[in-house]
Amino acid sequence: MPDIRERTPDDGELLFRLSRGDEPAYRMLHERHQAPVFRMSLVLMRTTWDAEEVAATAFFELWRKRDKVRVVEGSVLPWLLATTSYAAKNSLRSRRRYQRLLSRIPRDGDVPDHADEVARAMDFLKISRGVRDALLALNTRDASVLVLCVVHELPASEAAIVLGIPEGTVKSRLSRVKARLRGTLQEYSSTAEEATA
């Protein structure tokens, strides 16, 4: 008697179906990769609200660019993580411009401080403010290489596929950013060594 259990489609098959406009395939990809994308967003953003917005942007880009998404080792997650990094950088840049504009407007009252929420998120993620600030100070290209190769432990060859650049470029950027982080994070020597090991 044949096995009647339904086979779970891999990301490549779901992406193919998505490229044909299949909404259930999109929902399956979202459910499959929502947690790691949100965790990545939470590391990069200042509040859970902002992290949710960035994660939603990454999945919107998955839908919008469904014909151009790269699958690495049968998964769209590396592409989603790189997209999350870009979306976070763009969001922070936009917020800085907005804050500069707001700072020019006279205020009558105090603005609520979100430091408690940020502190809770940083405690949850076990990442120090100095490490987080050092990561956010990286340019988008270096941050993407670091996230893919160090945080998510992709080999340089797979990160190269995700980013659409030569493997040698990934390796040289990774080496350069590790050296820079070692210098920047001297006071967090054990954390820095863990982050760049």
Structural account:
With 197 residues, the protein is an all-alpha fold. It folds into 2 domains: 8-103 and 112-126, Rna Polymerase Sigma Factor, Chain: A (Orthogonal Bundle); 127-197, Arc Repressor Mutant, subunit A, CATH 1.10.10.10. 72% of the residues lie in helices and 0% in strands. The chain contains 10 helices and no strands. The longest helix has 27 residues, at 77-103. It is globular. The termini are far apart. The mean pLDDT is 79.
Regarding CATH, which class of the largest domain? Mainly Alpha
Helix content: over 70%
Apparent shape: globular
CATH architecture term of the largest domain: Orthogonal Bundle
Low-confidence runs of at least 5 consecutive residues? none
The H-level CATH homologous superfamily of the largest domain, spelled out, is: RNA polymerase sigma factor, region 2, helix turn helix motif
Number of strands: 0
Most strands sheet: none
Total helical elements? 10
| Rounded radius of gyration (Å) | 19 Å
Number of domains: 2
Mean pLDDT reading: 79
SSE topology string: HHHHHHHHHH
Tell me which oligomeric state these chains represent: single chain
Structural class: mainly alpha
How much strand content do the residues show?
Answer: under 5%
CATH topology of the largest domain: Rna Polymerase Sigma Factor, Chain: A
Features:
197 residues; mainly alpha; Rna Polymerase Sigma Factor, Chain: A; Arc Repressor Mutant, subunit A; 2 domains; 72% helix
